Amino acid sequence: MTIWYTARNLFNKSFEGSNKYIEFSGLKQTEEIVSLDCSLNDPVFLFDSDNQDDWKFGITTENEFFTDCYSSLDYVKTRARDVREYNLLAVCFQPTAPYNEVDLDDFTFIGYDLLDQSHGNSVLTNCVGSPNVFTNIELNKFGLIDIFDSAIQTKEALFAKNPNEFHSNTNVWAIWRHNTIGRK
User: Fold this and answer.
1) Does any domain span residue 26?
2) Sign of the alpha-carbon dihedral angle for 8, 144, 137, 146
3) What is the domain range of residue 112?
4) Cα angle vertex 126, ends 123, 129, to 5°?
C-alpha cells in the first residue's frame, strides 16, 4: 500500500455559502465535506513548477494528471505551515482491499472518495449524486462512502450506467484525516 499526503482547505458549515451548497446538493447529513475535490476542498498550496521539491515529491498518475498529493508527509506539513486550519490527509489511490482497517499513526480513516480521471472532481459531493446509482443520503458525515465494497460497486455502476459521461469514469481513493494537525 502506497500512502500519499495532501493539505486541503476546509468546507464546513462555518464557511459562507456552504449552507446553500448543502441545501442544493442534498448532502444534509454532512457535518463537513472532506474530499480531494479541487473546488470544494481545494489544496492549501498549489504546485509550484519553479520549486524543485514540488517536482521531487509531487505525484502524478499513469494518465499524467497531477493529484495535488505528495510522497512526503513532512514536506506537506512544511508547505502548509502558515495555514491555521486545514485537513491534513493521508490517501491511497485505487486501493485493492478495505483500508479502513489500516492504522496510520495520528490519522483516522474517514471514507472513500470517487474522483474523475483528472483527479479534480468528486463524483460523490461535487456532481450532486447519480440517482440511477446512489443517493446522497448513502454518504457519511464527510460526504464519503464508508465501506470499500460499496465504493467499488458504486465506481463500477457509475461507469456502466453512464459510459459517455466524463465524470463517471472514476478512481477510488481511501482517505484518512490527521487527528490534530490543521485542527483548531
Assistant:
1) yes
2) negative
3) 4-178
4) 55
What is residue 69's three-state secondary structure? strand
Q: Which residue has the cell 506539513?
A: 77
Kindly report the pTM of this predicted structure: 0.91
Whole-number Cα distances in Å, 177 to 46, 48, 72, 130, 169: 20, 24, 15, 26, 25
Q: Which residues contact 85 (CB under 8 A, 6 or more apart)?
A: 10, 182, 183, 184
pLDDT of the chain along its 184 residues, tens only?
A: 799 999 999 988 777 778 788 888 888 888 899 999 988 899 999 888 899 988 889 887 766 677 899 999 999 999 999 999 999 999 999 998 887 677 899 999 999 999 988 788 898 988 655 667 777 778 999 999 999 999 999 999 989 988 888 788 899 999 999 999 998 7
Q: Quick one: CA torsion of 19, 25, 31, 35, rounded to 10 degrees?
A: -120
State the total domains in the chain: 1
* Closest to 116 (Cα-Cα) out of 107, 125, 103, 105: 125
Residue 113: strand pairing partners: 173
Select from 175, 6, 3 the least CA-distant residue to 100. 175
| 184 domain residue, yes or no | no
